[in-house]
Structures are given as structure tokens and as C-alpha cells.
Amino acid sequence: MPVIVTGDDYLQSVRDRGTTLYMFGERIEEPADHPIIQPSINALKATYDLAIDEPELATAYSPIIDARVNRFLHVAESPQDLMDKHAMQRRLGQLTGTCFQRCTGLDTISVLHSATYDVDAKHGTSYHQRYLRFLAEAQRHNILIAVGMTDPKGDRGKPPHQQADPDLFLHVSGRNEHGVFLRGAKAHMTGGWNQHWICVVPTMNLGEADKDYAVVGIVPADAEGITYVYGRQASDTRALEPGTIDKGNAKFGGQEVLVHFDDVFVPWEHVMLDGETEFAQLLVSRFTAYHRASYVCKTGLGDVLTGAAAEIVDMNGVPGAAHIRDKLVEMVHLNETIYSSSIASAARATQLDSGIWMNDEMLSNVCKHNVTRFPYEIARLAQDLAGGIVATMPSEADLRSEEVGPLLERMLAGREDVPTEDRMRIIRLIENLTLGRNAVGYLTESLHGAGSPQGQRIQIWRGMDVELKKVLARKLAGIEESPT
């Protein structure tokens, strides 16, 4: 493992790895230098920079190594730890305006702390000690861990073992005295190429016939047999154009990759589950309890978008209009509702048998369900306030043109004391967050990340205890309970 202290150390750590990554049908020799990929690397760099700039927020004391560590490698030892985590996630959203790709790793190491402990308690395995040894090294070296949870799935009406192509779900393809081999793929892997290790976990409840699919393993991101295929994003090729205005957010962006495993070897020391199918659902359930509250990061993006909306109406000369203030208030109301449900889930956390704490499942699912809706309304209001020019504005090349540039300087102006270029930059930022590259992280990811809306509704139904609510209603209505 590399030893990383600063953001610049991180940038160096992902270079010269010899990975196999394809984009637009071509293998990219050095992904770290590619202009489409660099913004996503910058977003992860920010997680290191914040730990130096705001250590009280972005680091925590770890008893595992008796030292302070990056909070993204810290397992929660109290409800306050979880609340501090969510404050950090919001802050990084404010600083980057994008998905900074590290929450899945944090939430997975949190799940594995308790899950490996519970599997060992039932089966007498040694997964928990393996996990603790790996985590200690990860903390000492300050590395990044990507997570592969979502499988391609194929025919959604069939379990893994009934698929026509067994590789549509990642599975153990072989074993020997030294470890296991993994074959298949993981889809939508957030920041997959940008990180040092990949942890693969089951994506759904598994039966006894799916034992080979019940596997948790941790592999280096540059392991032999791994192929990355880069996911497209709206307006992604603007990163190849000169200038910075049309990019909207030129410095930061997200990343999703399809990752194929071609008999990738995992030594036993890095295997944390192997065939214990009854724990697959527990892993998924606990992951969602953590990760659905982690979508509090979208409030940081909401802060940026609200600020951009307020800025554009000011540049347009109408900041005091009552209907504009009302829309800005609504944007903040929706954003803070997301934040409050996340913080509430942390405050109501419960302690698990392994000693760590987990967000309240009901409130975490409520938080994520809010996230599937509210950013879309915040985005609509931002577009409403910005005007149709969000979707029709001429390019930066036109602004720089000797022929039409002077015309655009006049025709795209707002208040006379505001430079036209500044107004164009704010408009492009709003476009970036609501239609462009970072709308992937702010909108579509808000809808489907950590499970689509129905997933939260299922969990809310399971935990809502409707029978108790019926008893309360009958009692106040004066309906006597029937004797049992």
C-alpha cells in the first residue's frame, strides 16, 4: 500500500499503475492524465486536503492504531461520530459540487466491522480478525477503498444461479489453498478506478443455491484480471474543449465505471465472507442504514445550487422580489429537511454487538427517500430563477470570438456592474448541476444510488409497525380490544 498524507501524495499514488481502462472504445494508457477523468480524481484529492485544512471535522481518533485517521477510514464509536461524518460529507459537497466518491468505502468498512463479527460468532470463522488487520493497514497508509455492490443482474426475475450467463453476478469461480478467484462484474462503481483497493460485496438476498455468490473480498485496484470501462456522463466531452466556462465546474466531477473481474485472485487474508448466504441480506440491510444517511452529501451540492440561484438573480438585478425570495426559501427548506433526517438518524443510532454504532434504519431510509425527490425540486427552482438561458446560452468560443464576442458581451449582460463572463459562469454552473456532468451526482445518483426509491419504501414498510399505529387509533376512537 502507498503511504499517503497530502492530496498531492494521492495524485501521485494513482499514476503508473498499468491498469486496463477503456473509454470510447480505446484503452487509456495513463488515466490519471485524461481530461475527462482528472476532475473525478480532484474530487478525491479534496478528501485528503480537507483532513489537513479542517482536521477536527475530517479526522478522528482510531483506537485500532492509536492515532488520528482520515474520517473516511474511521468506524463510528458513538452517535456523535456519525453526526460528525455527515457534517463532513456536507462540507465536501460544498467544496466540490460533485460526488467525491468515498462514502461507499466508509460505509462498507463500517458494515464489515459488525458483519464479520456476527459471522464469526455463528460459524467460528476468523473474518473479523482479518478485517481488523486490513483496516489497521488501511488507516496507517491512508488509502482509498472503492466498493462493488451492484451486479449487472441480467434477468431480474431469476436468482444468480439461474442466470443464462453466470457472470452477470460476481461469484467465486475457483478456490485453492491460498484463496479464491472472482469472476463476473460490478456495475456503477463509484470512483472505481480512482481508488487503491476494491471491496466486493453481495448485492441482494441469497439462497443456499447461490453460495458461490455470497462472497466479500478485497483486491488491489490494479490486480491482474480487472478491466474498467468508463461510464459516460452528460456533457462529458466538454472536458476536452479549451476554456473553463462551458464546463460549469471545471475542477471537480464524479466517476462511475463498469468493472469486470476475470478470475481475479483474492488471498484468504482478504476474504471476509465465503458462502455464508444467510448473511448476504444482513450486509445489504446494514449498508443501506449507513449509506442512505450518507446521501446527506447532496445537501452540500444543494448549498452550492442555492447559492448559484441567489447569485444569478442578484446579477439579473432582482434579488428583492418577493416571489424570488420565496423560491430561495423553498430551496433551503427542502435542503435542510434532507440534512435534518440524516442527523436525526445519527442521533438515534444503535450500538451493534461488535461495539460500533449504526444509523437508525427508519430515519436513514427516510433521509434517502427525501433525496430521491427534493434535489429535483431544488434543481427545478434553480432553473426557474436562472431562466431559459440555462439551456440556450452560446459557447465560450463565441464569447472569445472577435466577430461575435463583443455582441455577446452586450446581449448577455445583466446588471451593468457585473461582468458578462461572470454571469455566464454562474449560468453554466447551474446547467452543470441540473443538466450537465454533475447532474449525474446530484439528480440521477440521488434517485438510484444506495437503492432506487422502492428500496427505501420496502424498508420503511418493514419498520413502520402499522399494527401499533392501528392500536393507537382504535384506543382513541373508543374501540375496545377483542380478548385474545
From TrEMBL:
A Pfam match: HpaB_N
Domain (HpaB/PvcC/4-BUDH N-terminal) ranges: 6-272
InterPro entries: Acyl-CoA_Oxase/DH_mid-dom_sf (IPR046373), AcylCo_DH-like_C (IPR036250), AcylCoA_DH/oxidase_NM_dom_sf (IPR009100), HpaB/PvcC/4-BUDH (IPR004925), HpaB/PvcC/4-BUDH_C (IPR024719), HpaB/PvcC/4-BUDH_N (IPR024674)
UniProt keyword Cytoplasm, yes or no: no
Domain HpaB/PvcC/4-BUDH C-terminal: 281-478
Keywords: FAD, Flavoprotein, Oxidoreductase
Protein name: 4-hydroxybutyryl-CoA dehydratase
